[in-house]
Amino acid sequence: MPQPPATAPEHPPSGERAIETRGLTKAYRGGQLAVDGLDLVVPRGSVFGFLGPNGSGKTTTIRMLMGLIDATAGSARVLGQPMPAASRRVLPKVGALIEGPALYGYLSGRDNLWRFDAADPVADPRTRGERVGRALERVGLGAAAGKKARAYSLGMKQRLGLAAALLQPRELLVLDEPTNGLDPQGMREIRALVRELAADGTTVFLSSHLLDEIEQVCTHAAVMARGRLITQGTVADLSATVLDSRGHGRLTVTTPDAADAVRVLKEHGVTDLQVADDRVTGELPACAAPPAGPDDQAPLELADLNAALVHAGVRVRAFGTARASLEDVFVQLTGEGFDVAG
Ligand SMILES: Nc1ncnc2c1ncn2[C@@H]1O[C@H](COP(=O)(O)OP(=O)(O)OP(=O)(O)O)[C@@H](O)[C@H]1O
What is the spatial distance between Cα 292 and Cα 140, in angstroms, rounded to a whole number? Predict the structure, then answer.
């Protein structure tokens, strides 16, 4: 199996860590290691994606972080406090949505939230109506507040669960697969909400088995496989890891003259040429590669390649190198494809 990057990711000082684990381990009965020696650092203010295929240990980790199950070994700190020892101090500052909200179908969305709020011993009953109304508005359920929860779509139920997590101001939100089972519209709604919450300064820790979801909403990510941490860091750095090790990204040319483009690119040493509609992609020869990060200006060689296309009469609509995706990172670091179906 390929090794993770040799350089450890830079971590923020301890006061700026929303979550930190050292050697966190969980063996379920029967001895199987669901989580194996996890060292995780989640910076405050980040939107942190906890990424891994089904069964890689994400939910087990979240349950340990929230003090719902005991670790077999290792330690965890949440908002600077040891868990589960400091649960009573920490958990009021944490909003959690784990494995879908427990709702009463025969109650309206508003009445469900009312019950959640009433179950919170620190919630002042005199201001309950205000809090419930604000949380419903926050997740866009104001208009549907009077509807019975059983008539809610899955996306609306997830949003109601988020509203419950948002009844009190939170420093950290922990969301376990918040878009699981949702249709594309429901997914978009939840992702937009996560972005809004993050913009307000809340740290968001969300698990997902969907790579593109992490790329769309997260600033940071950790990748899990079979209970072990494969890598963690900013999403940009994780992509750059793979980009650096390859030396360059893949060339993409958009043109109505694909056949001519293929010929010219081949003459200039571009290999593995593929055509899909008006997009031609290929591997650049080493000398034409951009030298460093994906945002750097293309060097002269790449510009020469573009000029050669234009000179040969190829009409170029777009020309550039694609940066590596998190999927590339996952495949490179684990030697496995990524299960997106489950
Ligand atoms: N209560 C349990 N008892 C025994 N084994 C368990 C238990 N819960 C989870 N496991 C096992 O531990 C491993 C990790 O499961 P976990 O649910 O943490 O993974 P996950 O990444 O959250 O996956 P999913 O997205 O499917 O929930 C799996 O092999 C799972 O079968």
Answer: 43
Is 55 close to ligand 1, i.e. is its CB under 6 Å away?
A: yes
Query: Token pair of 219, please?
Result: 């600033």
Q: d(Cα 266, Cα 269) in Å, to the nearest integer?
A: 5
Q: Is residue 43 part of a domain?
A: yes
Same domain, 191 and 250: no
Residue % of the chain over a pLDDT of 70: 83
CA dihedral 256, 257, 261, 262 (to 10 degrees): 100
**Rounded distance between C-alpha atoms, residue 62 and residue 89, angstroms:** 18
Specify the pLDDT at position 338: 58
Q: Is the Cβ atom of 37 under 6 angstroms away from ligand 1?
A: no
Do 224 and 274 share a structural domain? no
ipTM for the whole complex:
0.94
Task: Please report the atom of ligand 1 found closest to the CA of residue 227.
Answer: 14
pLDDT for 246: 47
CA 297 vs CA 134, 147, 238, 279, 291: distances in Å: 47, 54, 20, 22, 9
Residues recorded for the chain = 342
> Whole-structure pTM over 0.90, yes or no?
no
User: How many domains does the chain contain in total?
Assistant: 2
Among 125, 127, 192, 205, residue whose Cα is nearest residue 165: 205
